[in-house]
Known about the structure:
It is built from eight helices and 61 strands. It is mainly β. The protein has a 24-stranded antiparallel sheet that branches. Strand 39 and strand 40 (about 690-700) form a beta hairpin.
Amino acid sequence: MNAKTLILLAAIACTAFAQTTASVLAGAVKDASGAVVPGARVQVINEASGVVLATATNEAGLYRVAGLIPGSYRVEVEAQGFQKLVRSGIVVQISQTLQLDLTLQVGNLQETITVTGASPVLESQSSSIGQLVERQMVQGLPMPNRTSTALIALIPAATIQNVAGEIPVFSVAGGRMRNQQFTLDGGNHTNTVGLAVNQSQVPLPMDAMQEFRVIANNYSAEYGQSQSGVVTMATRSGTNIWHGNLFEYARNEALDARNFFAANPPKFRQHQFGGSLGGPVIKDRTHFFLSYERTQQVTGGPVFWTVPTPRQRQGDFSETLNAQGRVIPIYDPATTQGRTRQPFPGNVIPAARIDPVSRAITEYWPQPNRAGTVTGANNFGQNSRPTMNRNIVVGRIDHQFNPKNQLMVRYFLADTHNANPGLTERRASDPSASRTDQKTHNLLGTWTHMFRSNLLNEFRLGLVRRDYFQQRYNRDEDWAGKLGLRGVSKSAFPIINVSGFTGLSGAPFRFSSPLLDYQIQEAVSWFRGRHALKAGMEGRIGVFNDDTDTSSSGNFTFGTLLTGLPNTAGTGNAFATFLLGEVDSANTIRPDPIRSRASYWGLYLQDDWRVSSRLTLNLGLRWEGTRPRSEVHNRMNAFDTRAINPVSNTPGVVTFAGRNGVPRTAYDFDPTNFGPRAGFAWSLRQKTVIRGGGGVFYGPSVNEIVGTAATLGFSTDFRLTASEPGITSAMRLREGFPSFTRPSIEQLGAGFGAVPVGQAPNTAVTFFERSRPTPISFQYNLNLQQELATNTLLELGYLGNLSHHLTAPALSINQVPPALMGPGNAQVRRPFPQFTNVSVLNPPLGNSTYHGGFVKLERRYSAGLSLLAHYTFSKFIDDVESYSEFGDTGSYQDFYNRRLDRGLSGSDVRHRAVLSAVYELRWLANSGWLGRVFGGWKCGAIVTLQSGPPFSVFSFTNQTNAFPPGSVRADLVGNPRLPKSERTLARWFNTSAFSIPAPYRFGTAGRSILTGPGIFNIDASFVKGFPIRERWRAELRADFFNFLNHTNFGLPAHSAGAPAFGVINSARSARSSQLAARIEF
């Protein structure tokens, strides 16, 4: 049964779901005495599009209108015996439940009272902790790469590790990096179900985005598959008035400052241009919005290679020198007798001895164009010029068939082309030349149907498709035939690795990976009495088809040993070995296509119970489960740690899916993922709300359907190695690969990949454990909101997050037990000596705790000012990290004592303060010549201060002789911290407090015991607006990132015994600038 059929069946069977960006307007209608008014007619009208939604108050005098898109609304209330009430300018934000209580005055229905006022700023209907970034702030702030996800840097309780990229690496309120759920218009915009990480697809351009919200803690039961927050985005929609823009943004390194450690700014030239258009198709009923953005980017800089000299190409090594300026002797491997060899006379290889395949390949190295060093290194230089071109199209149509039926269809396309033409004209052999094409499609349709005024249905179908294609240049030109190389594929230039020289070609030869995520969502909302009930389900089916050619044309390695004197350092040359055609090692890999499948399903029930006019309870329950990865043709391996291997007579046997009782799925399905959630919102006074709550949340299981992990045995991986390295070769180029036929899985049997104990193994095993609990978090919060003035809010809050079963990096379980560590052959003392590494993929072994307090001041846009300022104090502890990109990553130091890795998380930022503001100089707009000069100006700024990340100190050398899964830490022999007055770039911490551990044991230093430099950064923007004609306006804009050019240093070198130990030699980006011109109408 294919995925599309499953979706159709699910659509028939299901009755509810939504991870919605739609909002709700709810409240009570009362008379002047405070008595409720049942049966009052309530109309909610979108002031931009004219779309009308109607309902009536129930017996408790309550009303609720769901399915609202973000925007400004007018509310009209009519009841017999009362004057008509019109309340305009009510701004409804994304994923918000806004409480708006209304009071009617006794009188004639033909009389109308019109009120215009600010929307409520207090969250009196929900216990979730989150933050919205309104559009006025989005338009006025400086944003690197102008992508929506950069706004995450403004959010309280968020820890940002990297904001320079298009998709920041971040965690929220104690969640893991890259573990968020992203939604776009209520549909999924996260990497497809089963990917290694949860991460947004190509970000939404700023000009296509209406609003952006991050829900950090205790989110509603309608959200799932996230332990680190939910990011909701909404695209812009059309209105009854035509509107749009044209824009161009430009960046150039000529406007940038140099990095503290660089002589010049790196090459960076970028142009972003495009526009948008929205308007009516049928007034008050059908509207459209269309956005286009193109990004053209050129980067690069000088690149240096080490290539053979003209003499070396002819076999003449008489001028090949070492660092002391002495000639390096070249020996003839054909004269080997025991451990002695004869040198080539005159250090020249006779022409007749040069391998014909080597001679043909040599022509593909460029000639030297610079002197290089005394050894000949870096004797070729050229400027690289990689480019990126991307087109993003967003289109949306909203149609109201009648007051009870609405349809929204939205399409998102990101078409990206990355190309590196390389440094030479021969792109097929140029190791730097490659091209990558990626297309991301996101199609979503939402049908909203109102059965009656208190019963609403939302149905969604969606598709996310990512087509990723990477390929070497000049494929399919019969390179094997041109070079005379036998036994390999003809499709690409072979990979040539020559020690001490720049190699030729590179992997992969071809990588094609279409990835699909089919989505079905359906939700039913029922408003009865004081209860707002919502029930839902979600289905997502992931499809991944991998077709990768890693090295079917051959991968050849050449070293110095075969042309050196055995056991004598400083002799031999790898290019001389290459000319002789004597290969140290070689392999050719021809993997089978992999067709992986996985799915995710969720069910939930949410009850928002308005107990009284001052108290609302949020009660929910969610169940979610992931169907584990499977492969269409069972091309997937497992591992039995207890079965006895017939080859080695030790435990450990590779097994295969669907054979001999082994299940088809990668691991067992976990049906126990029930997540209750509860919270309250209590209006202590008219302008004070106390909120709190907690719940159980499940994260993605890191199903990892992408890639070829755990597919051992389903590729032709033919490897040749020398029987006596340095004495004999693995093969000769002129002879090529011998013919090889891969045996079937049935022929290999239980001994697949194994060797007898004592013989050097060459098979590494990866697999999923059968028992695999889903990552789980217990989140809780307590929060106070105080309205200080109109549109101004002060908020104090505490956030907690306790997590278990967090996924770790692939973990080798083939470590020598500590009791057996010592000198000698450690391989035979490993638990599975018949294999190299035996690794569990993403084992759910991690634990973490987070406690954070924050204070926030927010002023929503009014009188030209929009402001968001917050400070967070937090502590984040865990025992393993998976995807952090700043600080320490990697697996456990000692598999048998994982508790020693408990320490500060790499995502721990103890102090973080962010101020973001946009201000329009309106008060000068009508001040004569001052108005012409200063009028129309708008300024924006983001000020960030945060403490540095923690880091560990490792040992430069690993003397454990135990094959540990992670890096070995140093020994701690003193106080590692220096007083602040003594810290310098040359000595950030007390390096004398660390030493390299003695052989055969692990270091005593704890994990993450030191802290790196903090961050102080100001980004600023200055915008000057000019009226062109009625409703037309032009803008000139300048954005500055790191406006003050403050140097924010990176981490010091932290490997004991390594060069520059304790020295800081890197810094974050210096000041860069962006200029822009816009026309708005």
